[in-house]
């Protein structure tokens, strides 16, 4: 950790939020001298303050400590680079269209590695009126089931969460030239193209 880099970042984030040192200090229940000391690189915030400082400044704790935000290049909102994440602890599902550092339940998440669909992970997509009816012939037991099915085009994604002991089926709006994803809790993420 570099006190000076961390201090520069704290000052920058504070100013971006149009906050005074006193406002940051009041939010954290410390003195404004402590905030001034951090910003000058003469010390670092106590570990017990990092979560609060992260919330006040709108940056993750790791970035504050490293003194660097590591911003991504602008992607123009293209969904072709979509990454899907699933927390193994609580089942939370997150998406990003660029590289991201996401965490859940206190752990950093890695994007799910996409595999080609085969066997019980192949989706059956049937057009019914203005919708797609999607189903999988897959076990839906508590420890082994389809967690979600998603349909992505260049500009949007529709995701349907699934639960054990329900059927692995759902209806989606009609979205031509899409990529389909199915996430198995045991075997990972599978995809295939649909014209």
Summarize the structure.
This protein is of the alpha+beta class.
Distance between the terminal alpha carbons, to the nearest Å? Answer: 50 Å
Number of domains: 2
**Computed structural class:** alpha+beta
CATH superfamily of the largest domain: SOR catalytic domain
Strand order of the largest sheet: 5-12-11-8-9
The CATH topology name of the largest domain reads: Immunoglobulin-like
Question: What's the overall geometry?
Answer: elongated
Report the radius of gyration as a whole number of Å: 22 Å
Oligomeric state of the chains present here: single chain
Name of the top-level CATH class of the largest domain: Mainly Beta
H and E order: HHHHHEEEEEEEEEEEE
The low-confidence parts are: none
Number of helices: 5
β-strand number: 12
Biggest pleated-sheet summary: 5 strands, mixed
What fraction of residues sit in β-strands? 25-35%
Mean pLDDT score: 86
Helicity level, as a percent range? 10-25%
CATH architecture of the largest domain: Sandwich
Domain HTH cro/C1-type: 10-64
Protein name: XRE family transcriptional regulator
Keywords: DNA-binding
Pfam families: HTH_3 (PF01381)
